[in-house]
Amino acid sequence: MRVLITGGAGFIAFHVASQLLAQGHDLTLVDNFDGFYDPAIKRGNVKDLQAIRPVRICEIDILEQEALRRAFESSRPEAVIHLAARAGVRPSLQAPSHYASVNITGTVHVLELAREFGVERFIFGSSSSIYGGNTKVPFSEGHPTDRPISPYAATKRAGELLCHTYAHNYGMHVTCLRFFTVYGPRQRPEMAIHRFARLIWEGKEVPVYGDGQTRRDYTYVEDIVSGVLAAIELNPHYEIFNLGESQTISLRDLIALLESGLSRKARLCFLPSQPGDMEVTFADIGKAQRFLGYQPKTPIREGIRKFVAWFLASRKA
């Protein structure tokens, strides 16, 4: 199968692409290598993918519609996995216009070209943040999502609605996957687990917003990949699925796991709660289990052990 992945040099995309290459699929990766975090990390991801098997690299911003059209023309994808996005809840509060531009207008560009080129399968990478201030847990796909509490969350929900519009009007097959705090080897450096590990290792203060009792449903990246591949195979007309571990852990307990893995004590710095932060994320994965056969296999303790092993090895490289 010919597959085009937007945000193709990123963390989740690397792991998805690795599995697709192992299965013999033809890949095109679209990425603009922006400076949200060190572009050298993404170029390293691409280099390691190329070592598995050659892939087509298109250094394109999804806001550049004509350049993006050329990538579709040259690759003629049968499936699109749309992972490109401006990420992060807190940064979105500082740059809402940019988040809206990339995550909404950019998504329209990708959907429109998928329609134009008759793409058979479209996967949209959504986020657990769309559940906003919901207090009923675990979060189910049928719960209200009309009260997001950050611009990032609002743009992701808008992306889902655009996906539904294209599925409804053009008969496209679209699956939206709500990722719950993905972590693992090659995780973006600004994300909590990677950032905390680095600060603990370097003996620097670890910022803890609020009392440290907020809870997250952390999902190991290999489990996310299994859900993505299953969604490509299922290829429904239009569906939304949660992909999480369906377990929660407090921020303080997460830091304790990192301390244990790194054999170093964290220097905690308690700060006021941040706007846009959710008190809890917790996935009801019943629907994904029924339709996708999704079954997360990596509990947080094992996942942190694997992450720490990668983190320490990367420090020596």
Describe this entry's structure for a reader:
The chain has 317 residues and is of the alpha/beta class. The protein has one domain: 3-Layer(aba) Sandwich (Rossmann fold), CATH 3.40.50.720. It is built from eleven helices and 13 strands. The strands form four sheets. The chain has a seven-stranded parallel beta sheet with strand order 3-2-1-4-5-6-11, sandwiched between helices. Helix 1 packs across helix 8 and helix 7 packs across helix 9.
- The name CATH uses for the topology is Rossmann fold
Number of helices: 11
- Describe the strand arrangement of the main beta sheet, using strand numbers: 3-2-1-4-5-6-11
N-C termini distance: 35 Å
Please give the CATH architecture: 3-Layer(aba) Sandwich
What is this structure's SSE topology?
Elements: E1 2-6, H1 11-22, E2 26-31, H2 39-52, E3 56-59, H3 65-75, E4 79-82, H4 89-94, H5 96-116, E5 121-127, H6 151-170, E6 174-179, E7 182-183, H7 192-201, E8 205-209, E9 215-216, E10 219-220, H8 221-234, E11 238-243, E12 249-250, H9 251-262, E13 267-271, H10 286-292, H11 300-316
Helix pairs in contact: 1-2, 1-8, 3-5, 5-6, 7-9, 9-11
Features:
11 helices; alpha/beta; 13 strands; two-stranded parallel sheet; seven-stranded parallel sheet; Rossmann fold; 317 residues
Task: Describe what is shown at a glance.
This protein is α/β, with parallel strands linked by helices and 317 residues long. It is 45% helix and 18% strand.
